[in-house]
Amino acid sequence: MRGHRRRTLWVPARVKAAWTSLDGSTWEREFGDELYKYYGIHAWLPITPWLCTVSDTLTMAMTILFALEKLNNDNDAWTRKQTLTIHVLVRHSALECMASIVFEEIIHRLPGVKTLKMVFCGPAVPKAGITENCNTCPDCTQRGNKRIYEYAAKE
User: What InterPro entries does this protein map onto (predicted)?
Assistant: First the structure.
């Protein structure tokens, strides 16, 4: 029988001033400094264990951003949409719904997007037929940004 592993849900508090490409970047370059500050890690300690911990769930948001960048080639108009809608296929564990706070990182990296609408769909969706207006961090709230989660029917 498989045990349940505790997951660390962490989203950097900062909001980026502009979209920057993820092409060629690394987890350490993207999150290292923020993790050192957030967890109060001494600079002489390796950051790798903390990166492994937060990337377990944050990878969902970062994979979406990287895929959108690649799918849109050199056209970054998607980074400035008023509303960005993303459909997520929910696996049997429903991790995508349980760790949904990590998708706020998408708004944090796309300051031109005012509303992020995540549509969770698939047989493992726990709240089929429900739409939620989610809380955002204080910076996003002040900027008028919104996260809307819609849970599609299970069938």
Answer: Mss51-like_C
Q: What is the pLDDT of residues 57-85, one digit of tens each?
A: 899 999 999 999 999 988 899 999 999 99
Q: Give SS3 for 9.
A: coil
Count how many domains the chain has.
1
Domain range for 52: 27-151
Q: How far apart are CA 128 and CA 151, in angstroms?
A: 5
Residues 152, 155: Cα–Cα separation, whole Å: 9
The torsion angles phi and psi of 151, rounded to 5 degrees, stand at -110, 110
Q: Is residue 128 part of a domain?
A: yes
Single pTM value for the model: 0.88
